[in-house]
Design brief:
The complex is a heterodimer of chains A (about 70) and B (about 425). Chain A contains 2 helices and 5 strands. By secondary structure, chain A is α+β, with helices and mostly antiparallel strands. Chain A has one domain: Alpha-Beta Plaits. Chain A has a 3-stranded antiparallel sheet with strand order 4-1-5, with helices on one face. Chain A has a two-stranded antiparallel ribbon with strand order 2-3. In chain A, strand 2 and strand 3 form a beta hairpin. Chain A is globular, with a radius of gyration of 11 Å. Chain B has about 425 residues and is α+β, with helices and mostly antiparallel strands. Chain B has one domain: Cytochrome p450 (Orthogonal Bundle), CATH 1.10.630.10. In chain B, the strands form 3 sheets. Chain B has a 5-stranded mixed sheet. Chain B has a 3-stranded antiparallel sheet with strand order 4-10-9. In chain B, helix 9 packs antiparallel against helix 10, helix 11 runs antiparallel to helix 12 and helix 12 packs across helix 14. Chain B starts with a helix and ends in a 7-residue tail after the last strand. The chains are: A alpha+beta (about 70), B alpha+beta (about 425).
Amino acid sequence: MRATAHVDRNLCLGAGLCEVMASELFRLDAEGIAVATADASGETGPDRLELLRDIADCCPTGAITVTTTDD
Amino acid sequence: MTSAAISGPPTALFSPAYYQDPYPTLTWLQENSPVHEFRFPVGDVPTWIVTRYEDVKAVLADPRYSAEAATYATPEFKAAGLVAAEGTILERGIAVVDPPHHTRLRRLAMKPFTTRRVQEWRETVRAIVGRTLEDCARRERFDVMDDYAGEVAAKTLGEILGFRIERHRELVEALNQAFPSDPALIHEAGPAFGRICEYSAELVAEKRLHPGEDLTSALIQTSDDDGDRLDEDELVGMVAAMIMGGSDTVRGFIGNAVLALLDHPDQADLLRTSPDLAGNAVEELLRYDGALSTALFRVTTEEIELAGTKLPAGAPVIAGLLAANRDPRHFPEPERLDIARTGKRHVGFGHGLHNCMGAALARLEGEIAIHALVERFPKLALDVPREELRYIDSWAIRRLTALPVTASGASRA
């Protein structure tokens, strides 16, 4: 399964929860707004997918979406 | 730091003089002792306060600074009664647990609080603000804290959680007792948390019988994709957390914001003539003088070096949010209120895992209530001399005791 995490920069307010939960997947940029790292997208096992969904569900602005494709 | 031992900050931390104006002390700490050891007034426990923006963010983003004082604090800290809500279900509440427990609670409860979902409450908040403003207009002279900010915050929370407004005052009283600054009153904290939980349990029981459109009913129903749900204690704890997080804080913030605008009439004029700035103004007002002085206690899980200072394991650490938001290393001209200021993120809602869940709702309430007040009363003025205004004695919440104003500007002051 492939997963893609996306941060909506217009919604994100830089609370930093995603970076604390998984700094390998999300980082705050110089403006303090979150970006998904290259590791946050691609071939994904169940644990990684669950983590991405946890983070998206905990985000205070609802700025993170996770989409999956089977292949 | 040796300089801290020789001279001290202008007022002692968490002393009566500090509460009236914490900023000179916070600025002194930033300059002279950015990771500052002092004795917490309750229990005389060695505690560290962090005041620079970068350090505050670093502490709040680092899992080695745990929110679980019940797990990691020293026996001394626990003996002083400083573990929040000890002995009640709130001891395992969302604000004071680490992952994975925190993740599960937050996942189950966050959905109705996101920016998009909170917009559903916009008309509700507008209507409450409109009615409250009319009451204030009839009075002509009124107290922004009790008659406006307090009313708006209480009615909004009541409407959203689905509780009756009569209960609000006793809840606010319990809340103030739950976080005492006076060491002599620490014994009242436990029973106060207990009363908040008791009320929350009543509300949950009532909504189980008679579900409504409110958030309490939604939380009872909520479940994730795997069918996981909040159990009874978690539900009660979550509703209690919302009561604690969503009433006096919003009230305090609106009061601080209105005072800031009274102090800066040019900025009030700008907001009145540029309603598009309302959202941005709220961010700047949160930065300039927010309602949360500090984050809740963090406790180190191991020895950590922070900006050159060694913290032992089990050290209580307080992240200074007011201080960080006025750090000149991060905000140019931090003392200047500029509602058009853009760019730098403030930490008025905290940072990291425990950032405020209700932030979007607080922003919505602030945006509507602050703009509406300056628009409705262009001549609004203080009705007491400026120096008579007082803040409550609280190390965690910065809130005025009263903010008497006159709508017509015909002040007795």
